[in-house]
Amino acid sequence: MARKASTQRKVLVTAIAWTIAFLIFFPILWTILMSFKSEGDAIKAPFDMLMSPWSFESYAEVQTRSNYSRHFMNSVVISLGSTLLALVIAIPAAWAMAFVPGRRTKDILMWMLSTKMMPAVGVLIPMYLIFRDFGLLDTRTGLVVVLTLINLPIVVWMLYTYFKEIPGEILEAARMDGANLRSEIIYVLTPMAVPGIASTLLLNVILAWNEAFWTLQLTTSAAAPLTQFIASYSSPEGLFYAKLSAASTMAIAPILILGWFSQKQLVRGLTFGAVK
Amino acid sequence: MTYRVRALLGACAVTALSTAAMAETITVATVNNGDMIRMQGLMPEFNAKYPDIQVEWVTLEENVLRQKVTTDIATKGGQFDVMTIGTYEAPIWGKQGWLVSLNDLPADYDVDDLLPAIRGGLTVDGELVAAPFYGESSMVMYRTDLMEKAGLTMPDAPTWTFIKEAAEKMTDKDAEVYGICLRGKAGWGENMAFLSAMANSYGAKWFDMDWKPQFDSPEWKATITDYLELMTNYGPPGASNNGFNENLALFQQGKCGMWIDATVAASFVTDPKNSTVADKVGFALAPDNGLGKRGNWLWAWNLAIPAGSQKVEAAKQFVAWATSKEYLETVAAKEGWANVPPGTRTSLYENPEYQKVPFAKMTLDSINAADPTKPTVDEVPYVGVQFVAIPEFQGIGTAVGQQFSAALAGTMSAEDALAAAQAYTEREMTRAGYPK
């Protein structure tokens, strides 16, 4: 009886989990389906749209109209560059906060997070003027710097929570064995925190890849990443759903694939330290 | 001899190099619409004439583009050499001195050929601050078969009373056919574009000569009451979320008897590839109430050169080419007359070939029926038919649009929506320091 109940429970939980997963994935699925339709079919009622013939015409048109590879390379450089730079800054910062906390460490952590609470558009004009004066408008360097600064609080926070899980005694032992600070961070702390660092890296690559305010405002053509590629296919007056869907699918495909292959790492990192 | 040949070759090489070095790249910011995308495909034609000018395109969705070019021009960022701007921005930016004057375009550009209604909206203190690339108005599109079934004949210039009668007779909710589809989605360029134009034909206005908001006037009340009555009784369900694209989809699927919207829609609804009702569509002027103003708007996408550009001469050559008569002929030769950007030049409408295009005449008549400098029955202190060309309007227009959209959704009454619109507009205008 008990076993039956538990099987039923398992089935129920699994069904709920699948339903939630499906609901979350549904908009992406619908975008992908719509991208394989013609413009006329894409605006039909949902059932008629599904039944209409499949075609690659939207992909063909997007390919001829836009330089996908340039936008793609810009996205790769900007998201990877900003994440790596953020890690280089955040690892020592998180180390200091986790292992040698001062009286104000908690305040500093909160203050860093508070910078995320301001609407970005509030600093658009000052940022634009700084970028103009330093010649950083429409450059990858400029975007790497901005995205590093934007994601830095999250990176520091994530690493800080992971580092807190590592027993300080191990680092002390390393010090007893004569390791200096640099070796302690590089050879002892970092290898132990690899799952945490990896999931921080992945999550921030995704965040930087999807960032669609600064990447749109601070670029024109040379450094424009995939967010601008998507924005060029939307319109308040016209037929564009199929092409927009095709462009969106092409823009999210790389990150979807990356997420798929690294999901074990991602989940392990996110639950790291949760079960002891 | 050899020396001479060498010297000559050397000179040639230097000249070639310097020509290459002289080649300039101009960056053009533009919206994503059919006519603009077509122009990008015609760049080889431009380069054949101007081999020294390379064009880098930045195509963006309208609202993203507006935010971006506004930031760039206000900070003199200099990222763009040519910007696509609407008739809303042109007078405001022109007044700020942000745009390069286009009064010195070459004689063969024939500036007097531009449609007066369009040109008037782009001229600030006698200076042409932007060149029109494509113009549009709004009109009635209706199903000829349903009109016939209802036993009615659509006049060329209908009244609102006729529209109401036709909407009632065409509606068959069991068959999912709705007499009329109108914009309901909130936004200064969404429902407020339609409602401001409709209000003009009712004799209503945004502001009086002292810049006092007029939503407490009987004319606005009549406008909103009639709009809500039409949409509640004969409109599609969920209309408060409908914009251009949603109504286009409904009309193409045969679910609307009439649709009053941008003239550009005509080419979509008559396209047999995408529309199930392509051969059953008729056109008429936007309705009126016998007060001398029709409920149609006027909009144009224009090319302008920001004052911060370092390549003004090259940019001017590009703007002159893109908005010339020659460009219209190039498009006609390559893609047919129906694909020529409409609504900018008188000569286009005098061309017998273009007159054969269905909806060409109705587009021209609609554009001519709107005057941005005299938009409504009474005199007003502002320029703009379906908008008020002041910087504060985007925010105010959208907030007011939200009230009317809520009234359509049934969450507030017409009276409450008008009172809220009046209070909000009064507050914002006082804060902005009007009357100026």
From TrEMBL, chain A:
The chain crosses the membrane at residues 12-33, 76-96, 108-131, 143-163, 184-209, 240-261. PROSITE patterns: ABC_TM1. CDD domains: TM_PBP2. One of its GO terms (biological process) is transmembrane transport. Residues 72-262 form the ABC transmembrane type-1 domain. It comes from the Bacteria. It is found in: Cell membrane. Gene3D superfamilies: MetI-like. InterPro entries: BP-dep_ABC_trans_perm (IPR050901), MetI-like (IPR000515), MetI-like_sf (IPR035906). It is a multi-pass membrane protein. The keyword Protein biosynthesis does not apply. Keywords: Cell membrane, Membrane, Transmembrane, Transmembrane helix, Transport. GO terms for cellular component: plasma membrane. Belongs to the binding-protein-dependent transport system permease family. This is Sugar ABC transporter permease. It comes from Cereibacter changlensis JA139.
From TrEMBL, chain B:
Keywords: Signal. GO terms for cellular component: periplasmic space. It is found in: Periplasm. The keyword Signal applies. Residues 1-23 form the signal peptide. SUPFAM superfamilies: Periplasmic binding protein-like II (SSF53850). Gene3D superfamilies: Periplasmic binding protein-like II. Pfam families: SBP_bac_1 (PF01547). Its main location: periplasm. Belongs to the bacterial solute-binding protein 1 family. This is Sugar ABC transporter substrate-binding protein. It comes from Cereibacter changlensis JA139.
